[in-house]
């Protein structure tokens, strides 16, 4: 069967949900410049809860977009890094970041006009 993101039963919909999730986008962007520890990710991504960060990391790892490497040390150290598949998302999510930041004023103005009605 050909993948069809419009079909709720198609696995491609789950992939789209994963890569379109705001936390996933921010994790991928944060890992763009290399390996990060859990605490680095938590500090960089303002507003993400510990539970949501953990869930997002597990989902991205499950989907093959990042790796989780546990180092035997005290305290234990865990490193996260994008896989080749995860790095293949960088142009896409970087484009979203650029669009969101460059069009923020326009979106805020549209919201203000809408809310004023």
TrEMBL record:
Residue ranges constituting the HTH hxlR-type domain according to the UniProt record: 10-108
Output the Gene Ontology terms for molecular function: DNA binding
Q: Which InterPro entries match?
A: HTH_HxlR, WH-like_DNA-bd_sf, WH_DNA-bd_sf
Q: Name one Pfam family in it.
A: HxlR
Q: Kindly state which keywords UniProt assigns to this record, in alphabetical order.
A: DNA-binding, Transcription, Transcription regulation
By what name is this protein known?
Transcriptional regulator
Q: State the organism named in the record.
A: Micromonospora costi
């Amino acid at each position: 069967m050909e993948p069809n993101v419009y079909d709720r039963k198609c696995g491609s919909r789950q992939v789209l949900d994963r890569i379109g999730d705001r936390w996933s986008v921010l994790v991928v962007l944060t890992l763009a410049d290399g390996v990060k520890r859990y605490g680095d990710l938590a500090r960089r991504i303002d507003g993400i809860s510990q539970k949501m960060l953990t869930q997002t990391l597990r989902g991205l790892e499950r989907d093959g977009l990042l790796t989780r490497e546990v180092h035997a040390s005290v305290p234990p150290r865990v490193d996260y890094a994008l896989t080749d598949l995860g790095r293949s998302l960088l142009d896409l999510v970087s484009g979203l970041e650029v669009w969101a930041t460059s069009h923020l004023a326009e979106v805020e103005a549209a919201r203000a006009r809408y809310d004023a009605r």
